[in-house]
Amino acid sequence: MTNRIVLFCTGAICLLGGLLALFNPLAASLTAEQIAGWLFLFAGVVQAFAAFREGWSARAWLTGLLGALGILVGVSLLARPLEGIIALTWLVAIFFLVSGAAKVMLSWPLRKMPYFWLLLGSGTLSVILGIMILAGLPATAGIVLGTMLAIDLISSGVALIALGLATARGS
């Protein structure tokens, strides 16, 4: 599969996911929180099992503690979804800030390219979304998380589709 097809398909998936999240932001927030809870729980169980099989070494104890922490976080997210949404909203805000800054920095070497502005805009939008999320916490976490996720997915999807189309024209 060529790079342009991967970029285009990834962009289309991001765009579709963003549109679905935009139509129901609370459901998107709850879904993301529940998925995270199950992932933490599953990873914690696997880590704890690996530690148990390893024996009584210091590494096994550390692995077991990390597994127990994963289980605790997973159970906590699954048992208390509204508090979990607030915690995940903090994490998503930090992610948006960091990923937005990275996109902005990655865009600068492409200043002379016509698609520079799309990457720069996507990065700037991610930073703005991170700031907006942090400003509204905790009162608006349920709606804001899903809405911000939708906007970022749509923005990233459009940028990736454009990059895929640009790559197709350049080859």
Automatic annotation (TrEMBL):
Residue ranges crossing the lipid bilayer per the database entry: 5-23, 35-53, 60-79, 85-106, 115-137, 143-166
This protein's UniProt keywords: Membrane, Transmembrane, Transmembrane helix
Domain of life from the UniProt record: Bacteria
Pfam families, alphabetized: DUF308 (PF03729)
Gene Ontology CC, one term: plasma membrane
InterPro entries tied to this protein: Acid_resist_chaperone_HdeD, DUF308_memb
Keyword set includes Coiled coil: no
PANTHER family assigned to the protein according to its UniProt record, in alphabetical order: PROTEIN HDED (PTHR34989)
Protein name (database record): HdeD family acid-resistance protein
Natural source organism: Pseudotabrizicola alkalilacus
